[in-house]
Structures are given as structure tokens and as C-alpha cells.
Write the C-alpha cells for this entry.
Amino acid sequence: MRVFNITDKTSEQTFVCRENEYVLYAMQRTGIACIPIGCKGGGCGVCRINIIAGKVDFGPMSKAHVSDEQRKNGYALACRVKPRSHLVIECAPNLKARNK
Ligand code: FES
């Protein structure tokens, strides 16, 4: 199984994520939490990140929280993406969604 390094540009911390693991779960496992942890199922939108570099496998995501345009620009829900290379990410929580 492949393992990738994920660097959070905001905190400059790096954590490890397995290829079959969602980024949010790896973040939580290593104690790095620059985004809130919500439903863990792609529905609440609070775990939004911006993928600055690297490749990911996108799982189903609510367009209410990540529009097609945002997705093209690298936005994703951390609980719905698995790494396919080393990544550089930036946390970009959708706080509006959290307050709904
Ligand atoms: S935790 Fe709810 S969408 Fe990711």
C-alpha cells in the first residue's frame, strides 16, 4: 500500500495518509485539525480544503459545498478525497455551511 505525505500550507505541518484513506481521517489520526470535523460523509461542507499541488481521487461531494467551478480550482471536501500523490493543501473551511 502506498503512503503519501500531505503538507498543510497554513500550519506548515506534514502528516501521512494512506492511499485508501480519506484525507480528513488521516488528519484526525495525526492530530492535525485545521478544519472542523463534521459529518465525515460529504454532506455538511465544513471540512473544505484547497488542493494546491498533487493528485487526488474525488469521492462524491455535495455541489452545495463544492461547486464544479470550485472543484476545478482545487477545492474539495477532505472527508471525500484520497491522495494519489504527495499533496500540498490549504485549509479552507466552509464556515457558512457549518452555521446552517
Ligand atoms: S465532514 Fe461533513 S462534509 Fe466533510
